[in-house]
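Appendix C reproduces, verbatim, an entry submitted by the partner laboratory led by Prof. M.T., so that reviewers can inspect both the input and the predicted structure.
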Amino acid sequence: MDGTKPEEPAPSGVAADDRPVAPGAAGPQIGGPGGAPSSAVRAMTTFSAADEEKQRGVRRMKLTATGLLLFVALVYVLAKWATHEGAGAWAGYVAAAAEAGMVGALADWFAVTALFRHPLGLPIPHTAIIPTKKDQLGVSLGEFVGENFLSEDVVRRRLRSVGIGSRLGAWLAEPQNADRVTAELATALRGALTVLRDSDVQAVVGEAITRRANAQEIGPGIGKMLEKIVGDGGHRRVVDLVVARAHDWLVLHDEQVMDAVQGGAPGWTPRFVDKKVGERVYKELLRFVTEMRDMPTHPARGALDRFLTDFATDLQSDTDTRARVERLKGEVLGRGEVQDLIASAWTAVRSMIVAAAEDERSELRLRVRASLLSLGARMATEPKIQGKVDSWVEGAAVHVVTTYRKEITSLITDTVASWDPEHTTKKIEANIGRDLQFIRINGTVVGSLAGLLIYTVSHALGA
């Protein structure tokens, strides 16, 4: 009756660690239904040292509450005896108070015990609530959380009251916090680049570049760019460079040029004639290149301008020219050397990024830090930016809770369903049972006072 007796047998259909599990009953599992985390299951099927200490506290409070019940029972017996022996009117008052105290103590003992087990082992309806209604309680808890914590209005109202934008801005505006975020971002970046396999990334980059290049015609784009360059005169520096280099090369390789001309002459011509022709061709070629180098208005330059202008127009509008460019593009992209070059670009980029992320004084980290400080300062002082940040955060949070509310609440439901009923009952009782025993004590005291008051009023009215 005092709740300190040994545990009663588990109700039908309730599994314990060392007992058979009835068909369909939920026994001890490594993971609960729906994949409940095994750590949550272990937490409800094992007793820690702290749990043992709490359980000892519950036993002490049970003894206290039971001792108080026995005390009022003894008082009742003595008061009744005193009344029978003619001790006086006071004995009736004491007996009434003690009797009501026993009733209150027994009623509250039943209520507290019924939460965790069948009182006296009797299968009284609506008792052993926690072990028999555990799954329903889990469902109710999940629904309660979903309706009261994961609704769109609650999430928006709560996040709006927090003022994440201004708080985050003030936090980021502190140099030490910006340094910390920069360091964390650098660490994450290095980790991501380290995990990625070069061969996989190279294949993806190469395939992406090739696919993008093949999917888009490049002729019109090149034509527009060339047209703008020629229109702005941007190609003239290139022409100047080429002509100057050609002039210098001719000056240094005069013998080779003349030998090449003589080698192409017919075999029947005299050698001195071939030599004269070679010298003449070399001089004319050198004169042409020199004049083209020194004369910005040289006719050849004008002809080159017209050629480039016409070519730019053909790249944009001439079907045959555009088709030839596309065929040339395909041939170039199909060459192994080009594919190797595209793939090797990732290695160079990765090495550059990793080196910059590791160097605290690198331009990358300095720019990231400066950007964070600037962003923090603006977020802390500009309501418009604060509103945008708050709106983004609210939108993201609302999307998560509205899209995955069922999954979030099912985590609660499935985790509770995976708990073993007996161990769950013991653990809950160890954590809240001490406070519940105060209900028994209070019931005894309040019952005694109520009984005394009722007896006093009854005698006063009867008098």
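The two ends are 39 Å apart (CA to CA). Additional entries are available on request from the coordinating office.
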